[in-house]
Write a structure and sequence with these properties.
This protein is mostly helical and 128 residues long. The chain is built from 4 helices and no strands.
């Protein structure tokens, strides 16, 4: 939408005419629908774009209540001393993935290979 100060006088008059038409149509619609006062009309809810990435799965209410009951029973068993907390937690919490770390030697080898490759490229020996 452009700024109102950048409109020409003809464009500004046309915009005013369109606004007047919208207001009259809004009052006619309010009368048609039986509303006492015309107000802003929303024909539908704003449509949001689908989220890309991981698909969300939703539990039914019955499945969610079973899941919550199982969690509650498990933790009451832990608190009563019947089960071990660690053995129960492996079913509750997801294991954390550890990042793989490259050794200093591996990084040095890769850096050396890259330096030698770029040196060859600068000399003009690669790619011809």
């Amino acid at each position: 939408m452009s700024n109102l100060s950048s409109l020409t006088s003809a464009q500004f008059k046309r915009a005013a005419e369109i606004i007047d038409q919208l207001e009259t149509l809004n009052t006619e619609l309010a009368e048609l629908l039986g509303e006492t006062e015309p107000g802003p009309v929303q024909l539908s809810a704003p449509v949001s774009e689908p989220v890309k990435g991981k698909r969300k799965y939703r539990l039914s209410m019955a499945r969610k209540s079973k899941w919550e009951a199982g969690l509650k029973a498990g933790w009451t068993g832990v608190k009563a001393g019947k089960t071990d907390a660690k053995s129960f937690q492996k079913f509750v919490a997801k294991p954390v993935k550890r990042r793989r770390k490259m050794s200093a030697e591996g990084r040095a080898r890769i850096a050396l290979a890259a330096k030698t490759r770029w040196a060859r490229v600068r000399e003009g020996k690669v790619g011809k």
